[in-house]
Design goal:
mainly alpha
Length: about 120
């Protein structure tokens, strides 16, 4: 329980990004009927990023306490590196889902057709 204020303060520093991800989740849900595949990909990406941020904040706050419990500094450092690699890969996958959601649904005809003049 004593870690909750630290976790919340860590999340507070990310508030602008978290708000955008929450808005993205809400918009994906609202627009689901119009664009179900795009909305599903966006919801997974935005929701996954939100979850990843919360888990990252929790781990980042909890890891230093492991040193106080006797875990060697080198081991904690290795855990930080492993966490960084795993979170970076997951973040890239979620970003890729957003790219697919934005551009993947477009038909080739739409992308290469010249704009129509009126």
């Amino acid at each position: 329980m004593e870690y909750i204020p630290l976790i919340l303060s860590s999340l507070l520093t990310q508030a602008p990004r978290l708000i955008i991800w929450i808005i993205g989740c809400v918009l994906a849900i609202i627009l689901w009927k119009r664009h179900p595949v795009v909305s599903a990909l966006a919801l997974i990406a935005f929701g996954g990023s939100l979850v990843l941020s919360v888990v990252d904040a929790y781990i980042s706050v909890r890891l230093p306490s492991l040193m106080q419990q006797g875990l060697a500094t080198q081991n904690v450092g290795a855990i930080y590196i492993l966490k960084g690699v795993i979170f970076s890969i997951l973040d890239a996958i979620l970003g890729g889902l957003l790219v697919v959601a934005i551009f993947g649904w477009r038909k080739k005809d739409q992308a290469s057709a010249p704009p129509q003049s009126t």
